[in-house]
Amino acid sequence: ITVQVNKSVAPVPKNMFGLFFEDINFAADGGLYPELVKNKSFETDDRLIGWRAIKGGSALTEYIVLSEQPISKSNTHYLRLTSRTNSPDAGLTNEGFRGMGVKQGENYNFSIYARRGPGSISGLTVTLEDEKGNTLAQTKVGGLTNEWKQYTAVLRSSATSGKAHLKMTVEGTGTVDLDVMSLFPQDTWMKRPNGLRTDLVQLLKDMKPGFLRFPGGCIVEGRTLAQRYQWKETIGDLNSRASLINRWNTEFAHRYTPDYYQSFGLGFFEYFQLAEDLGAEPLPILNIGMACQFNSAEQAPLSATTPGGPSAVATGAEAHNHADDISLETFIQDALDLVEFANGPVTSPWGAKRAAMGHPAPFNLKMIGAGNEQWGPQYIERYKPFAKALKAKYPNIELIASSGPDPGDERFKYATEQFRELKADFIDEHYYSKPEWFRENVGRYDDYPRNGPKIFAGEYAAHPATPVSPRDKNTWEAAISEAAFMTGLERNGDVVKMASYAPLFANVDAWQWGPDLIWFDNLNAYGSPSYYVQKLFSLNKGTTILPVQLPGNAKNGANNLFVSAVADDPAGDVVVKLINYSTSARPVTLNLAGAKKVGKTGKAMVMATNDLQTQNSLNEPTKLAPKEETFQVKSGSAVSYTLAPNSFTVLRIPGK
Ligand code: AHR
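^ thats the input. predicted complex w/ alpha-L-arabinofuranose below
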């Protein structure tokens, strides 16, 4: 293998390896956003999702959701509890998101709005219990009046439980109105009051991501256009952010979770803030007036390239959701206002809203995605005026167009041609395919035109063939195949400027789609082998792409050996990534052509196992993770190294 150390293909793109965040698999509520109470405001379509009467209720206690005289115009439903008996069982529990995760000695901020009605109810008892009903913390809320008022307390948990719940009982008889009951950890990322779950953010931070794409994914478009993601509804006062059914609350997902809603506690402000915390460029994807995939032109949904995904199953009402229902102007205006929200001065209407939320400084938004996964003529026709209006007002904002989820599909090719003609800044390509597709398409961008739009590989993941359950698809075979493919992305960094695995997160108890990068329960989290592949690429992305020559001048991997190389100029290292997709060890010699000086000791980071079915889990979170070792560079500028069977190796060699 020859690595041309004294030649440069191009600089490594600054934001090359980033993150795709979508609220799928309980990634937001029940995941990154650590509110413990589900449906805290009784605003979901089925108003009592998450709530249960204690011991199944009795004829002496009544629970009814009302909307007369609510706490505000934007939070219109509340619970009226009527108790005709002075019983310790008059009350209700909230189950959390497949339970609540609480830790021994940690503090949790409790708050509730209450208003007493006729009768003698003067207070509430609030108890945090583990799954067996043992008390972990308790507080009393007293002095209720006949006006809405917020009451707060701090609960300190006496033990750790991943399956706790919150119980609230009333003292006395009569009626009481209750709303916005919240239990929120004090230990959040940056200790923010509405902050994010620390261990999950840390896993992201550790990847040093170049960008953060949000809020999806199909979630952008919604199951219907009426249920699309509207960023303006997700900012400002927390209690005014109305819940919306999640696009992944569908029996056509890999797994059906009928209790899946979006609270928007994690909204656009919080996404921008997260991007800033991670040192990643924010990359919002906006709806341009089309619902999820299916109304991209008058055509049938794509075939099942995303196994069990939306395209495999769209029928009936989901398929008929025409773009013309809402004027395009609305979507254009949303985009223009978003730029002002992110970047505008505090004296501008939307910049003022950002400042009021605690961030007067701009977020420096530089890119926007127009639509998620669309491709047909109807999409192109909408893209044109959208792009024109955005560029007229904000010429420096780069716009990302979509080509759909299947590179083999004619419509994908059609969209690509159209966007080349339109001179789009970026095309967002998605590929969910079998592991072999990734290994066979390593050269996808080798001969790609260099003079047109740049590529954003915005969603990809290797999906081992069914019948393996989606839960069991995060195998080493998937991850090593992605690593092979990523060498192709890396060496074509002059045209592929950004790439992100998808989806990012999955709750082990509440997922809808697999495989996923990071899995978690209410207390712990682990990265899949794919996570460590992404992390190794990102942490070793270097600064300059170097030309690599494989044995026999092979382009698409030489006999299942895949290689890319970069120089990390500040560190003074040559970094070579090598994938040996073979059950045999493979000795290789790297000729560092043109190197003037090569150090004696190199560093190797290795992921290897002969068992391609290896997965990580909550019990064995790092069963397959990189191991570091040093190695001796033996002779001059020729480096000899033996690659382990089925391995991904990153070699850092000091030299220039
Ligand atoms: O990543 C899961 C889904 O896959 C995304 O929501 C969609 O864009 C794609 O079909």
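Residues 22, 24, 216-218, 306, 309-310, 372-373, 405, 459, 502-503, 513 surround alpha-L-arabinofuranose (CB under 6 Å).
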